[in-house]
Automatic annotation (TrEMBL):
Lineage: Bacteria, Pseudomonadati, Pseudomonadota, Gammaproteobacteria, Acidiferrobacterales
Organism this protein belongs to: Acidiferrobacter thiooxydans
Protein name from the UniProt record: Transcriptional regulator
InterPro entries: ArsR-like_HTH, HTH_ArsR_DNA-bd_dom, HTH_MetalResp_TranReg, WH-like_DNA-bd_sf, WH_DNA-bd_sf
GO MF term (any one): DNA-binding transcription factor activity
Keyword Protein biosynthesis annotated: no
All residue ranges annotated as the HTH arsR-type domain in the record: 3-97
A family per Pfam: HTH_20
Keyword Nucleotidyltransferase: no
Length: 120
């Protein structure tokens, strides 16, 4: 059982690293190719310090890799599966939101005539 505990702890740490909108944005950007820190600053609108902080968290969890070339660090995803996983979760969320929205619409339609009726 101890191995299971460690496995779930590691899963939780990876999901925690992905639990910030800007880190998800960085993953999305890197999913389309390698970028330098400066390019990530430009694309995300974050400061260099903030990009560095977010990249550090993603690197610590093994989601991105840095290759130093000259004076620049080039970041890339460690595995394309990282982006695939994020996309699967995004679809799950969108499906849930669509379902929730559909139920809200149906409930609103069902309640509207009742509220509009006058009782004798």
């Amino acid at each position: 059982m101890m191995g299971e505990d460690i496995r779930f702890t590691l899963f939780a740490e990876v999901f925690a690293a992905l639990a910030h909108p800007k880190r998800l944005e960085i993953v999305h950007i890197l999913g389309h190719g390698e970028h330098t820190a400066g390019e990530l600053v430009e694309k995300t609108g974050l400061s260099k310090a903030n990009v560095s902080q977010h990249v550090g968290i993603l690197k610590a969890r093994g989601l991105i890799h840095c290759e130093k070339r000259g004076t620049f660090c080039h970041y890339r995803l460690t595995d394309p599966g990282v982006l695939d996983t994020c996309e699967q979760i995004r679809h799950l969320i969108l499906d849930r939101m669509e379902l929730s929205s559909r139920h809200r619409t149906e409930l609103t339609r069902a309640k509207a005539p009742v509220r509009g009726k006058s009782h004798p």
